[in-house]
What does this fold into?
Amino acid sequence: MMQHKVPIRSCVACRTAGEKSRLVRVVRTPEGKVTLDLTGKAAGRGAYICRSAECLRRAVKERRLSKALHAEISEETVQQLAKAIEQGLEA
Ligand SMILES: [Zn+2]
It folds into this structure.
């Protein structure tokens, strides 16, 4: 039997499953801040999306991200997350 050494997650927007490294984790911190978790280890409730601002916006628009995180996501937060994803892609 093959074993998955890498945890498989799926994007809350498009449902594409991928290795953890292909997706990015959005986390609601214990302080209630919604932020991008580039380490994948931040404490708090998390949801995965593709490393794509398009999937981020779709996840927010369809309210999947707020449902997954049990948090309201403001437009300001969306902008910050989109920016962080774009910067992460360049890195
Ligand atoms: Zn996606």
Notes: The longest helix spans residues 75-90. Strands lie at 8-10, 17-19, 23-28, 34-37, 45-50. The mean pLDDT is 89. The chain is about 35% helix and 25% strand.
